[in-house]
Design brief:
Blueprint lengths: L8 E9 L4 H12 L5 E8 L3 H8 L3 E5 L8 H18 L3 E5 L1 H17 L5 E5 L11 H17 L2 E4 L2 H5 L11 E3 L12 H12 L8 E6 L8 H11 L6 E6 L5 H10 L6 E5 L13 E4 L8 H8 L3 E5 L4 H4 L7 E3 L4 H13 L1 H15 L5 H12 L1
Parallel strand pairs: 1-2, 1-4, 2-3, 4-5, 5-6, 6-7, 8-9, 8-11, 9-10, 11-12, 12-13
Length: 387
């Protein structure tokens, strides 16, 4: 007698925002790289942003909850919960994999309610892309968010964090023993434009000539307060007269654009600082930069640092989240305190005045990051979690 073929597992990914950031890229990489012979994949998103557009290109089923937003709104959150619960009953997935705090909370609660009323149970998994309580908030908000985060973990079967720091922050949380595991982000073998071609492209984007002597500093990050763009812009304003010829570019889009444009103008940096907006496959242009920065206030394990390291760039980054897993201070880059304009300025001046250290740090970052942060490893470990 011939055995019945193994039933294909259905995975429902759920993420709050459908823009393009690290968490969205994580979902995209998982959804588009799982074997279609083993997994049936659908993705639930809030809104109609770049993530949905890219998933549509790959013919991945996407489901939209229009009122799902990052900020707390009782009416919208209740509506989103009810809509998502209806989707669960309609899609009947084997695995629910949530990303981002709002999706995590709504998804975990809806998943537990579903499991109470259905014979076929859903495995509930939540990936944390940096704990929200690490953001700059008042004590009341942080306390509420810690309790909310603990409750989400409690309702989940397994919780994925991206590094040691995030796991250590939960060591004293009750009733969640053995729920939290580490799976590091990983990327496919990157492809980069040659330095000359990449700098030519940036030049066309900003409509400004970039010479061999131009110091090109850059970052790839959403225009959001958590990314700390104001601090590096203020740092560049402080040291502008100490740098003969420099350009700083931010590749990314977001809600802070108008505020950043106002800041750039007030600091008289219109000829030095440029917001390039969202660029498809932004990492392609990394080799254009002499220095890569990520001055965030909060992070998980940022893809952009992995890509910058594999592009052999000298890196200045905030000592937050799991960035210290990627960068050894003054060995494979420079770690600075978040929101510290002075440290950012001093770090940039140090790398300008010590070009040999730029080369040394860049090489060490390339060696350290190496093959440890590969897409294949991330997929393998995630699939084991699903089985």
């Amino acid at each position: 007698m011939t055995e019945n073929p193994q039933k294909m597992a259905k995975i429902l990914y759920f993420i709050t925002k459908s823009n393009w950031g690290g968490a969205q890229r994580h979902v995209f990489d998982l959804a588009t790289n799982l074997s279609p012979k083993e997994f049936n994949v659908a993705v639930v998103v809030g809104g109609n942003g770049a993530l949905k557009t890219r998933l549509d290109e790959y013919k991945i089923q996407t489901l939209t909850i229009e009122e799902l937003t990052r900020d707390i709104n009782t009416r919208k959150d209740l509506t989103s919960f009810l809509q998502f619960y209806k989707l669960l009953k309609k899609e009947t997935p084997n695995i629910l994999h949530m990303h981002s705090p709002k999706a995590g909370g709504i998804g975990a609660l809806a998943g537990r309610l579903y499991n109470l009323t259905h014979r076929e149970k859903i495995k509930i998994i939540y990936t944390v892309h940096g704990w929200t309580f690490n953001e700059n908030r008042n004590l009341f908000s942080k306390t509420f968010i810690v309790i909310f985060s603990w409750f989400t973990v409690l309702l989940s079967d397994k919780v994925v964090v991206l590094g040691n720091q995030e796991k250590e922050q939960t060591n004293k949380w009750p009733l969640i023993k053995n729920k939290i595991i580490i799976i590091k982000n990983g990327i496919a073998k990157p492809s980069y434009l040659a330095r000359t071609k990449a700098r030519e492209f940036i030049s066309t984007q900003i409509d400004k000539k970039i010479t061999k002597n131009t110091l090109l500093i850059g970052t790839i990050a959403e225009l959001h307060k958590n990314k700390g763009h104001t601090y590096i812009i203020n740092a560049l304003a402080e040291i502008k007269n100490n740098i003969s010829e420099f350009i700083f570019t931010i590749i990314g889009e977001g809600e802070e654009r108008k505020q950043l444009e106002t800041l750039i103008k007030s600091k008289k940096l219109e000829n030095n600082v440029f917001l390039l907006g969202q660029l498809h496959n932004a990492a392609l242009y990394l080799k254009a930069f002499d220095i890569f920065t990520l001055t965030s206030l909060k992070e998980g394990l940022p893809y952009t640092i992995i890509e910058a390291g594999k592009a052999e760039l000298s890196i200045i980054a905030s000592n937050v989240g799991n960035i210290p897993d990627l960068i050894d201070d003054m060995c494979s880059g420079i770690l600075i305190k978040p929101k510290n304009t002075c440290e950012i300025a001093e770090s940039i001046k140090f790398l300008i005045n010590h070009p040999e250290k730029r080369i040394e740090f860049a090489h060490n970052a390339y060696i350290k990051i190496g093959s440890e942060y590969s897409l294949s490893r991330m997929l393998e470990q995630t699939i084991k979690l699903y089985l």
